Amino acid sequence: MYIKESKGFPEDFLWGAASAAYQVEGAYDEDGKGLSSWDAFVKIPGKTFKGTTGDVAVDHYHRYKEDVKLMAYIGLKTYRFSISWSRIFPEGNGKLNEKGLQFYDDLINECIKYKIKPMVTLYHWDMPQSLIDQYGGWESRQSVDDFVNYAKVCFSHYGDRVKHWIIMNEQNVFTSHGWMLGTHPPGKINDLKMFYQVNHHVFMAHAYSVLALKEMYDDALVGSSFAFSPSYALTNKPEDALSKQDYDTLQSYYWMDVYAYGRYPRAALSYLESLNVKIEMEPWDEDILKRSALLIDFMGVNYYQTTTVAYNPPQGVNNLNGENNSGKKGTKAVTGIPGLYMNPSNDFLDKTDWDWAIDPSGLRFACRDITSRYDLPIIISENGLGAFDKIEDGKIHDPYRVDYLREHIKELKKACDEGCRILSYCVWSFTDVLSWLNGYQKRYGLVYVDRDEEENSGTLKRIPKYSYYWYKKVIESNGENL
């Protein structure tokens, strides 16, 4: 859409950066914390790159003051972080851990001290292992009650200072990797019925938590973050266009429609019925989902890449997991579901070393699509580039990351001009983090952390990258100086 003159970003725009508890905190068994699903999963041989774990991660638990001070220097407006459920409830339910509550009190207060608004994610993939041992975790309806109890404790304890809440992070990712691909806890493969049942339990946990928060703090802003990869049809053939519709329904709208409308897409339910997959619900679930949908304040978006879609014949590609976890460019396999769609590479786009398509315009596409379909404000809760960063002369030169972020912010600015209500943009990530399946070699941070794959290797020293100083200028100019 042609806009003659840009209005720029809103004056109260929240420039931020993000992290997740398991990927940065470390201290996995300190101060009363219980084991999470990831603490247990990474101990299974072959599950992570070179056996990497988050036992130490980048030691944010002990170094949060240093990290927040670095955030303050560049003028960060918000810091998005997650709370570890097993740090608050070591067993997932039962007795509270006061030291766990205190850590997040201290982190939140440290942010506020520097006028950085805390943006809190309640669930970033780390289910308490005890709940999996007790009843199968998300596979049981009991998980809804235990999650909502945990959420209410967080709301009541931190809600006087935290006004931005993200309930779930990338529900589509942790459920597909956990019950279809076998690469995340609990490591199950092609368990289609349980995949959809687990998603329903997570949706109910989200919905009840939204209702609980609004009852306690009606001025709080709440939503969940979705890993959105907008799609392009490979050609203008009608079968490719219809396959794109199938992909969008089953891979995107299935989640966003529930958050925003409180209902599942009809086409998706018809597809599941054809596979004899029936979601078990309580009689009141639909009402709770719809009530929650009326109360959410934004759609959270984690954006990294777009997807190309083509028709896939019944005897075609049958592969769900084509991920490149090695960083060797060009090794990603084509994925697809026979009779529905396949996802070939987009030859018009460059790729990262992990074969993720670099497509800044896709971020604008995502915002326009959400605005048109749901008419909700948007928080970009993650966007960033994973790369092989190297220290040279004591510095990290990452102009490739600056190029990536600059082009995405340009497109986000255009989205604002086109009527999208963007509340915040959070770079993934502030410091380097443990990449779930790619170890410490895949670096995303604005701040370099000196460590390697092996636990306790490196000094954990923080070294701001070139992109860190560049982002400072972006924030100071409210997105004008790119």
From TrEMBL:
The keyword Hydrolase applies. Gene3D superfamilies: Glycosidases. The keyword Translocase does not apply. InterPro entries: GH (IPR017853), GH_1_N_CS (IPR033132), Glyco_hydro_1 (IPR001360), Glyco_hydro_1_AS (IPR018120). GO terms for molecular function: beta-glucosidase activity. GO terms for biological process: carbohydrate catabolic process. The active site is at 382 (nucleophile). It comes from the Bacteria. Pfam families: Glyco_hydro_1 (PF00232). Keywords: Glycosidase, Hydrolase. GO terms for cellular component: cytosol. Belongs to the glycosyl hydrolase 1 family. This is Beta-glucosidase A. It comes from Kandleria vitulina DSM 20405.
